[in-house]
Amino acid sequence: MLLAFALLTAAARPALAAAPEPEGPEHEDEASAPPEMRAEARALYDRGLALYRTKDYANAIKAFEAGFALEPRGEFLFANAQARRLAGDCRGAVPLYQRFLDTAPPAVQASATHIALARCARQMAAERPAAPVVITPPPLPPPPRPPPPPWTHDRWGAALLGVGVVGLAVGGGFLAASFAALPDSGARTYAGYDGARSTAESRHAIAVGGLVAGGALVAAGVGRYAWVRHEHRARATLTIVPGGLALGGCF
User: Hey, where are the domains in the chain?
Assistant: First the structure.
């Protein structure tokens, strides 16, 4: 802080010193001496330095910028850059430092400027957010297969059993109808007796076919249910779990 303020004051010294009186036309120092700062600019520069001493960097920056607008001199650039850096605005200070170096300042001030630039570089590197660490979660195990439906919900078993029951019902109905169609001993004519007997035999044949087919289908449906139930009870599942494998199922 003290070194920076000393450099600010040193940067203003050429403006405070009066140009030497020329000794003659051959005097060459008069052209190389920096011109004296104008009174209005000088007042803003002094005000900025006073605010700088009290660490009121925001108002000091305003004073230095106003002075530079009146008289664009390197002193204002360096002082403004110092105030911005100490206020935490290195991104705004770096261009001012570089513009100050373009004015070819004395070696001491150029060295101080390079030191300030290095400090700004470290500060901006520290402010840069670190790259987020992406943690890839381990792959999830595949979801377990849904359990099979109960053996009583097997479609083929239900279909076979249902059709078989219908066949038995039809066969039973035609069997009853065949007995009802048998001719009795009181038939008046042979033709009537023969027709009744033929009807009874036809219904009996249909009844036998229905009962046989229905019984076979019922047996097939029951067998299907028994087979599905056995398969479900003997089903085993192998699942990957943390730390090993898990065996499950019905036996």
Answer: 2-19+35-127, 151-249
Residue-wise pLDDT tens digits, 22-54: 333 333 333 444 678 889 999 999 999 999 999
Do residues 207 and 160 lie in contact, with contact meaning Cβ atoms separated by under 8 Å?
A: no
The predicted-structure confidence for 223-247, as pLDDT tens digits, reads as follows: 776 777 776 665 555 555 555 555 5
Q: Which CATH architecture has domain 2-19+35-127?
A: Alpha Horseshoe (1.25)
